[in-house]
Amino acid sequence: MVLPPFALVLDDHQDVLWRYVVAMAGPHDGADLYQETLVAALRTYPALHDATNLRSWLLTIAHAKVVDAARAGSRRPVPVAEPEAAATHLPEPADDELWGAVARLPDKQRAAVVARYVGDLAYADVARVVGCTEAAARQNVRAGLARLREEL
Amino acid sequence: MTGLDARLRRGPAVPAPPSQLAERAAASGVLDVMFATVDSPIGPLLVVATERGLARVGFPQESRDDVLGAIATRISPRVVEAPARLDGIRRELDEYFSGARHRFDVALDWSAVGQFGRQVLDACAAIPYGATDTYAGLARAIGAPRAARAVGNALGANPIPIVVPCHRVLRTGGGLGGYGGGLPIKEHLLRLEGALAL
Description:
The structure holds two protein chains of two kinds. Chain A is mainly α. Chain A has a single domain (6-151), classed as Butyryl-CoA Dehydrogenase, subunit A, domain 3 (Up-down Bundle), CATH 1.20.140. Chain A has helices at residues 6-44, 54-72, 96-103, 107-118, 123-130, 134-151. In chain A, helix 1 runs antiparallel to helix 4 (107-118). Chain B folds into two domains: 21-97, Double Stranded RNA Binding Domain (2-Layer Sandwich), CATH 3.30.160; 115-192, Winged helix-like DNA-binding domain superfamily/Winged helix DNA-binding domain (Arc Repressor Mutant, subunit A, Orthogonal Bundle), CATH 1.10.10.10. In chain B, strands 3-2-1-4 form a four-stranded mixed sheet, sandwiched between helices. A two-stranded parallel ribbon of chain B has the order 5-6. In chain B, a hairpin with a 6-residue loop joins strand 1 (33-38) and strand 2 (45-49). In chain B, helix 6 (135-141) packs across helix 7. The model of chain B has no long low-confidence stretch (mean pLDDT 94). Chains A and B meet through helix 1, helix 3, helix 4 and helix 6 of A and helix 1, helix 2, helix 3 and strand 4 of B.
């Protein structure tokens, strides 16, 4: 298996990975999960058999980290920027209203919506990342979007 | 509806923190290959190292992705940008280009170099700063006086130019010969070392 240098994989996908963990776990816990995901990905990278969809591979690792952290109870999804981190040097509005609403979605819906839109993944890859069937992924995205529209 | 899509796609607008990957990877023993870019008077140089030492110096006109891609295939795809861990070679290159350093002390990773190539590059590394030799001279030095052409090829394949000074090898009769980084860079290095008249 010829794999590209890991650094080039990050060139292409680390921004998406960062936005994904922030949308799932908030900027504070997301920062730890982001670093942990990078090392975990690097560790298993040479054993990868398929280099065709590295973004969904990275997000799958990130998703497992997010779930483990939530299960450990030490982290709660609060994807709203903390006051000191907000606004001042951001190029665009942080859209806290939206991400607050995303944070309040049920776990499966939040994971599917974030993988689909922030991760920019096809449904098959959403299913792979969050660990469900493609049909369930579609259903969770649909339900999540409906709920967001109600709230916003 | 499309408004919601677009807002979701944009993601949370929080700037990413600096990656701690190099430090964390080193601490867990999975930093196989590290690289950094070092500014120099001849342009940005790509330096690539393993735990053993400096494995590759890439010239400004070489594609970073190609150089790293070859390393990923040959050594390990665990290739990580790690400028802080390459401060030693950066400092030595800075000193070399300012004229303060005449000899490099960083450890080298020779694993990409075959036996003949190693003989040639060792002989080349023995040419003192400010001096030059010829392809034929190096061939004699390694006891293969008829191998001047093979010597030239081995020098051309030098993975660690500048540090292993293949620029100090010229054509018999005084012509510059060839250089992987291009002749202007070879000339620059030889002038810097005082081996070419200004």
